[in-house]
Amino acid sequence: NAGVTQTPKFRILKIGQSMTLQCAQDMNHNxxxxxxQDPGMGLKLxxxxxxxxxxxxxxxxxxxxxxxxxxxxxxxxxxxxxPSQTSVYFCASSAPGTFSGNTIYFGEGSWxxxx
Amino acid sequence: AxxxxxxxxxxxxxxxxxxxxxxxxxxxxxxxxxxxxxxxxQHLQLLLKYFSGDPLVKGIKGFEAEFxxxxxxxxxxxPSVQWSDTAEYFCAVRPGGSQGxxxxxxxxxxxxxx
Lengths: 115, 114
Hints:
The complex is a heterodimer.
Chain A: E1 4-7, E2 10-13, E3 19-25, E4 31-37, E5 43-51, E6 54-57, E7 64-66, E8 76-78, E9 87-94, E10 105-106, E11 110-114
Parallel strand pairs in A: 2-11
Antiparallel strand pairs in A: 1-3, 3-8, 4-5, 4-9, 5-6, 7-8, 9-10, 9-11
Chain B: E1 4-5, E2 10-14, E3 19-21, E4 24-25, E5 31-38, E6 44-50, E7 56-58, E8 64-68, E9 73-78, E10 87-95, E11 103-104, E12 108-113
Parallel strand pairs in B: 2-12
Antiparallel strand pairs in B: 1-4, 3-9, 5-6, 5-10, 7-8, 8-9, 10-11, 10-12
């Protein structure tokens, strides 16, 4: 059981370049999330999705885009990379249901540096 | 705005010492509460969670946390730490107790000296 899989694990981008962080989960979870983790700061939610075809902005969505064409995949796109986007990115997923013990499962993280 | 406060940025302990990491949140309604741990170079893993019922929650690796509603707190404890507990610990709150956004604290780095 692979859980939540993120790629790439490390990437260096030049300012203005674009890239996509891939995220896939094999647990048939409806809910998926993208967080960023900056040094000395808590995790901040970028975007989330409650199901295929539905996405919503989180706390820090500017500079990012997402899509959710399938239940399994939730890619995060950076269109014009900026140094402020240097961070560690975590994808996560969870099952629906308020009382189902819906733990959120995290991927291993993607370290992105914009220079 | 809803927020989660972790009082200590970095805690240094010797092996066998007792641990308590503070976590307070600002939301007056129903909440789901979590503690996650991130070992060096690894992803976030769930330590324990509270949804309802007994406010003293037991987690993995000997950790426990107590939900005190009147104090809006969910402190993490362990009676005797080990070197392998060296990691960063994140408290997280889901306001409303429903599926949706988690709000994370800034994290507390724990260093355990052998």
